[in-house]
């Protein structure tokens, strides 16, 4: 994942308090919170005065714990109380089965952060296993029979320097497995359950190598694959002698190889194809074939069975005009489950890997599916499923009986889900006659013209899906807004041509799509063209800032979260292991022509065009879009005499994950929207 948006899930029902630090005459900020070369402009500015004012602008920097705010109003208690109900909603993310196949491991939230829980049967109580200060959303049991070993992934303060920890579920004892310094991800247990493969930046901090080790030597073992680029483990063969590994270059360019675990010999699959997105699923039981996905046969990622000896691929989903977005093999390799992304909605299928014939499945609710996992004996398939009006919960399909049973039921803060806004797929025309898809959420029984919030996803190769969002529901039901989630060009899920329409010098074509959406809103009788705001996180944050420089006169305001303000400073300061992964998408800033172009289109360069109110939200520890991107944009808007609010969390990274921090950011957004919409309390 190369981008992301903050999610808000908590409420604090009293106003923030803190020490106010302000200057007299000039803006005087005691703390700059600078990181790297990205901070081209800082908040120590002199004579920051709006053109029409005789008194200098005064900025109050208020610190309350790990949250710092500037120009953010005191929290409205009544609005905060309503928000609290929505953001108390939680979900259940399927992670793994217990080794005996009797229970499931999920990630869910009871307190401040998401933690690991066991569920030992349908609708049974959730037994909390971890109690960390930071969220834990990834973990896997050793598949060894009778094992109580669990390895989970954890990072501190949103730094994304992920570490592995071993939890003995029988004793509750926890210990660090990795080195505590490098970035470690993608844990894959072998079939015996005594070792696991993973990727790490341990060697040089830039390249991501593949390692195979156990609980005692993972921190010191030599790499199995140590080459330039970003490599990851996919799956072991049944005898654990071979390992399938992937190399990621860009979302439209990735490779797949087989590694001999004993010798380290690496053999690339489909070496003759250099410009395809090739990803692995796993080996056939006899290790003579590999299940994989590739876009080489057309626009979409198809599922295929590749014969290693002949080099030929039998395409299983040749007749499906959609991407296969997720696939998993049973432990014995005899069954394979995969998920199709059908215009944002999910369809799950299961096949017999020997005959390639489908296994009959019961009907599931229409929604978005993730976290699919077979039980150890392959007889059941668990999956997380969310709909526009219900949070993600785990459903278990019994493949023998052909029925489905819901194992978890997540609360939604005591709210009546019948009042939630549902998702409607709409399309709008853009400048080159393409039809751009978007999901529209409107409050039920709405009257009159509705204000509009356009929420732009991150990535930029992400995709807005019709899943549950407590934030979207709050905006629709309590602010009375129509919420539009467009999948502007460059979004995943609509074919590789669409995916590449915003690359390099075509970057601003995606911003033109936002302009087309603004024009489309003006044609809708129930939407108010004079009350439109744009918001988004990560790349969506950039798109928000860029839209404000292009369509300032048509927008009421913009709210950017961890957004790129200058492509040059971003690419030079983003974490080193990410830099080469971002250049294929945004362009290489080391090329003079591309550098000049990126500088020209950056929101920071065009900040003088913004006169409407802005809100900027940032995590201090963000390794993807460093804090300097937010700080320099805030400073520039103020220097231009503009109005901007700022929320900075010192213990967060690329998006807010702690409930109390999430609430502050979401309240700032809600009150900002209400203000620019002209709504009273």
TrEMBL record:
Residues 467-679 form the Peptidase S9 prolyl oligopeptidase catalytic domain. Pfam families: Peptidase_S9. One of its GO terms (biological process) is proteolysis. Keywords: Hydrolase. InterPro entries: 6-blade_b-propeller_TolB-like, AB_hydrolase_fold, Peptidase_S9_cat, Peptidase_S9A. GO terms for molecular function: serine-type endopeptidase activity. It comes from the Bacteria. The keyword Hydrolase applies. Gene3D superfamilies: alpha/beta hydrolase, Prolyl oligopeptidase, N-terminal domain, TolB, C-terminal domain. This is Peptidase S9 prolyl oligopeptidase catalytic domain-containing protein.
